[in-house]
Design goal:
The protein has 15 helices and 14 strands. It is an alpha/beta fold and 398 residues long. The chain has two domains: 2-194, Glycogen Phosphorylase B (Rossmann fold), CATH 3.40.50.2000; 208-382, Rossmann fold, CATH 3.40.50.2000. An eight-stranded mixed sheet has the order 3-4-2-1-5-6-7-8, sandwiched between helices. Strand 10, helix 9 and strand 11 form a beta-alpha-beta unit. The radius of gyration is 21 Å and the shape is globular. The termini are close together. The mean pLDDT is 93.
């Protein structure tokens, strides 16, 4: 079977662990021919090119900058992306028949590419991996309003994408509920839970003391780690309030590793306050982060309290794989913290009140972190394995 996967995630090869690379490896290992189409932003200075890599074909399409850039270029780049992908697919994959069309959001503007592929491959199954509900998330963060031309344009694109998709895989039950509630035209039979999934990594032996010395981390108190994007969706102002409220504590340490449009705001606060129990690091290579996270004790998840859409950050999987219980401070619509509490591998509060955060922080620090981490690892094995996601998707093709 020929499978084409459209994504804006940066994929150079499929051996790096990740929710998309793990899934593509699974399709390849099951004997399918895998074709991946990804953007190469202009900041990387590359041209559109085709390459064979580890048994899959990757088509790099030159685009404008669409990630970690200003909103104007991101908006224009997202609009142009559709035509750039179509032109590249015509040129390089024009003679290939596809049986399965997989694509992920963001962006929401893949409907033209999917329509083109379905017209060319009328028997192909189209499957949307819904990782981002746009433009509603932008409205939630007050980037533009319901009355704006931006909203109306991207909302029409979203509707078209849902209509053209044979199946819509959502990250959690709350996501399924949201899609059906706000899109009455969608047939409930084609919407299902298709969570972020991974393949378990080989166990990596590390010298914990050596890693802690390397990064200047304390030896004898719990380390709470946040790893991932540092942008508006994470509610950086609330994170700063949390750090400010806890900067004199000596019974825990906050480690933040990431990059994004709000990194400078967090860095400025740390530079001015110099807290002894906080360390901020720029994004580091995946293998280094994997070693670093093994030295930590609790995984942090932050989402802006204004969200009405139920985000479900994939960073959760790294925490669970490394047997870290989680502390989630999110909006009331995300079910990531509620699922953690229901299965006893984490605690949750709304990301509004620092006192609420400190209450669950105190509770967590007095809990059996090792046992909670083991529960999380078991939940990962039972619910977030890439083999299960593969079987779910392939069942619709067969």
């Amino acid at each position: 079977m020929n499978v084409i996967f459209l994504t804006t995630s940066r994929i150079n090869n499929i051996n790096t662990p990740g929710i998309y690379t793990d899934l593509m490896r699974k399709f390849r290992n099951e004997g399918h021919q895998v074709y991946i189409v990804v953007p190469v932003e202009r900041k990387f200075g590359q041209k559109t090119q085709l390459k064979e890599c580890d048994g899959v074909t990757i088509l790099d399409v030159r685009t404008l900058n669409i990630q970690k850039t200003n909103i104007i270029e991101k908006g224009i780049g997202t609009v142009l992306l559709e035509r750039q992908f179509i032109n590249a697919i015509k040129k390089y994959f024009g003679n290939i028949h596809f049986d399965l069309i997989l694509y992920s959001t963001p962006p929401i503007t893949f409907n033209g590419v999917v329509s083109f592929l379905k017209k060319k491959n009328p028997k192909a199954v189209s499957y949307l991996l819904l990782k981002d509900i746009f433009p509603q998330n932008a409205v939630d963060l007050e980037m533009f309003s319901y009355k704006s031309l931006f909203y109306r344009y991207f909302r029409s694109k979203e509707i078209q994408l849902y209509k053209i998709s044979d199946f819509i895989g959502c990250m959690s039950p709350a996501n399924v509920e949201f899609v059906l509630k706000h899109n009455g035209f969608v047939n409930p039979s084609k919407v299902e839970v298709a969570p972020n999934c991974i393949e378990l990594s080989l166990f990596q032996q590390i010298d914990e003391s050596e890693v802690k010395r390397k990064y200047g981390l304390p030896e004898n108190i719990p380390i709470l780690v946040y790893g991932g994007n540092l942008g508006k969706p994470q509610g950086i102002d609330f994170i700063i309030k949390v750090l400010q409220s806890n900067k004199d504590r000596k019974d825990c340490f906050f480690l933040i590793v990431g990059s994004g449009t709000e990194f400078h705001k967090l860095n400025n606060w740390i530079s001015h306050n110099n807290p002894a129990n906080v360390k901020l690091m720029s994004q580091i290579p995946k293998h280094e982060f994997n070693a670093l996270i093994k030295c930590c004790d609790v995984g942090l998840i932050f989402l802006d309290h204004r969200f009405t859409i139920p985000n479900y950050p994939s960073r959760l999987l790294s925490y669970l794989e490394n047997r870290l219980p989680i502390l989630a401070a999110t909006d009331i619509n995300s079910d990531i913290g509620k699922i953690a509490e229901a299965n006893s591998y984490g605690l949750w509060c709304e990301s509004r009140d620092v006192e609420d955060f400190n209450t669950i922080l105190d509770k967590l620090l007095h809990s059996d972190l090792k046992t909670m981490g083991e529960r999380g690892y078991k939940f990962l094995q039972d619910n977030y394995m890439v083999a299960d996601l593969y079987r779910l998707i392939i069942s619709h093709v067969n």
